[in-house]
Write a structure and sequence with these properties.
By secondary structure, the protein is mainly α.
């Protein structure tokens, strides 16, 4: 069993906190723009949800890219035992 590969993905604590804050903001009666103002009241809630979704997407892409790099390095090590000595510096 190769210890270089991630066994199980850990939850992204920052994203979980962002989601909780967004949910609390959306259900909260205190808003940047009160919900009693037609359209604009819901717009700030929608903006908060959109920003959280964008943050989640960007962070998931970064995590996926990092995981793919780890897999690629692991496969390179397995195929070439001298991988560490031939590797270019980062």
């Amino acid at each position: 069993m190769n210890n270089d590969l991630p066994q199980k993905s850990k939850p992204d604590l920052f994203l979980i906190i962002c989601i909780i804050i967004t949910v609390l903001y959306v259900i909260s009666p205190v808003d940047a723009l009160p919900d009693t103002i037609p359209f604009l009241g819901q717009l700030d809630d929608l903006l908060a949800v959109g920003i959280t979704a964008i943050i989640g997407y960007i962070r998931s892409r970064k995590r996926k890219r990092k995981r793919e790099e780890l897999i690629e390095k692991s496969e390179a090590r397995r195929q070439n035992p001298e991988y560490e000595s031939t590797k270019l510096p980062d």
